[in-house]
Design a protein that fits this description.
Blueprint: H1 3-50, E1 64-73, E2 77-82, E3 85-97, E4 109-115, E5 120-126, H2 128-131, E6 137-140, E7 146-155, E8 159-164, E9 167-180, E10 192-197, E11 202-207
Parallel strand pairs: 3-5, 9-11
Antiparallel strand pairs: 1-2, 1-4, 2-3, 4-5, 6-7, 7-8, 7-10, 8-9, 10-11
Keywords: Plasmid, Signal
Organism: Priestia megaterium (Bacillus megaterium)
Region (Disordered): 25-65, 161-196
Length: 213
Amino acid sequence: MNKKMVVLCISLAGALATGSLVGCSNQNDSSQNTSQSKNSSSEDKLNLQQYSKDPDSKQQGEDFDLIGTLDKETNNELTLVIDGEKVKIPKSKSFKKEKDTPKDIDGKQVNVEIDAKNNNAESLELTPQAKADSNGIYEKDADGDYSIIGKLINETDNDVTVEVSSGKKTYKKAKDFEQDDDNTSGDSKNKVVRLEVKKNDEVESLEVEPEDQ
């Protein structure tokens, strides 16, 4: 074999080796980018869950609620202010608002349901605190019963006193009064509570929700 043939063979071998190395490098870069993309997606989802006070947010695969002040809404995205931080949430294709939600709710406190699988906003509604009037009433039933939200000031065997924007309100407990504070620890005093009140102004139930605190 002459020298030209030897040089040609060496050149071809070098080119093939270089091509193989480049191919491996590109494949490794692609795999690394895919892995980074998956990790980034996972981190985004985890971070979104960390903003939630909903107990369901701690359970993998469970849809959960986010509470925050609506800063901005576009056709594709919601921006909430949660603990002073702006959080952007993509809307799902099936996104909807609660019936009778006012058109302009920027600056209002809202409850957004998050699809845990896709990490998108499924629905939006005003929170009880945003709906409440000066007496703390945020919902009225056709039969005359109503719901109140306010800060628990005092509770006795017979009465419940809450503070709302118009002042302190005291309600007598009904005979079938029930209290649900399973989702919170410690004393309920000075915490925000929800009261179910009968049309005769007797309290039927008291509930403490982590998302209201």
